[in-house]
Amino acid sequence: MTTIGYLGPRGTFTKLAVDTAFNGEEKIGFETIPECIDAVEQDVIDIGVVPLENAIEGTVQLTVDYLVHQVRLPVMAEIVVPIQQHLLVHPNFIGGFEKIEEIHSHSHAIAQCHQFIHKSLPKANIRYSSSTGRAAEFISNSETQQIAAIGNKLAAKEYGLKILQENIHDYPNNHTRFVVLTKSEELLKIKHSKKGDKTSLLITLPDNQPGALHQILSAFAWRKMNLSKIESRPTKTGLGNYFFIVDVDQQYDDVLFPGVKGELEALGCKVTILGTYPVYLMEL
Predict the structure, then answer these.
(1) What are phi and psi of 134, to 5 degrees?
(2) Can you give the pTM of this predicted structure?
(3) Quick count: other Cβ atoms within 10 Å of Cβ 218?
(4) Which of 184, 196, 212, 229 has the most C-beta neighbours closer than 10 Å?
(5) For the chain, what percentages of helix, strand and coil (3-state, to nearest 5) are there?
(6) Pick from 76, 81, 80, 98: which is nearest to 89 by CA?
(7) Contact 35, 69 (CB under 8 A)
(8) 252: CB partners within 8 A, 6+ apart
(9) CA 57, CA 108: separation in Å to the nearest integer?
(10) Could you give all domains of the chain from N- to C-terminal order, each with its CATH number?
């Protein structure tokens, strides 16, 4: 049986993505993103699923940096999941927002609900946890009932919590991209039709070359290759040194991509293919 790892415990959005995308496999939760990625690299699990980007809060930098600097695993698929954040309380909780003294959740979930917290829970103290699932678990096991967690309906169901307020995220079009990592593409059996294809490139610019970024973008532009994302991250070799992650909305081919790679390498850039993969859009 295929084993799939995810950012756990039960009740996280990553677990929700895994449950939506895969059938019947053994699923194992990990406390952190690096632990899940390491487990794939060390063959402890067959497939790892970790969050990459949220529509409201942007890139999950830990995922990007770990895949670039620590463990190079190819991205084999992308799962896009709609995110609905709810205010969860103990089943014995009585009262309204004014009774809540603390809010527990992952930092990204807290940030996605900033305006709701600011307006409805201004006096509540914020406590960060490793995941939304861990926050829900804490609320479930706590003897203090004047606390709440931010999480999804799966977390509420898994830990027997009450949803005090639904859809507390600040913006309605809230989605998260999850990447699927595995050494064996043959193991992927995602139970949805794909939305499209994508190829991700890691590009390192030559030192102190004026106009280098413009030249990089031009290499894609004149070939009419659509870029859905371009993001800079520090190389961790000194101030002012960056690499770029570029997402191209098409599958790797034997004409356009080698042409881009050759042109950029002629400019002194280093180009690495991080993955070419199908994209799946899930409906909850």
Answers:
(1) -65, -35
(2) 0.87
(3) 12
(4) 212
(5) 30, 35, 40
(6) 98
(7) no
(8) 199, 273, 276
(9) 7
(10) 3-83+174-187 (3.40.190.10), 86-165 (3.40.190.10), 196-278 (3.30.70.260)
pLDDT at 283 over 80: no
Give CA–CA dist 243/167, Å, rounded. 36
Q: pLDDT over 70 for what percent of the chain? A: 99
Q: Which amino acid is at 43?
A: D
| Torsion region of 66: left, alpha or beta (phi above 0 gives left; psi -120 to 50 gives alpha) | alpha
- pLDDT tops 70 at residue 18: yes
Q: What is the pLDDT of residue 23?
A: 82
Asked if residue 211 has pLDDT above 80, the reply is: no
Q: How many CB atoms lie within 10 A of CB 139?
A: 29
Tokens 């929700």 found at = 16
Residues 116-125: tens digit of each pLDDT: 999 999 999 9
- Across the strands, what pairs with 48? 5, 181
Query: Which residues neighbour 26 within 8 Å (Cβ) at sequence distance 6 or greater?
Result: 1, 2, 3, 4
Q: Residue 254: which residues within 8 A CB-CB, separation 6 or more? A: none
What is the side-by-side order of every strand in the sheet holding 86-89? 125-128, 102-105, 147-151, 86-89, 162-165
Reported as a single tens digit per residue, the pLDDT across 145-154 is 899 999 999 9
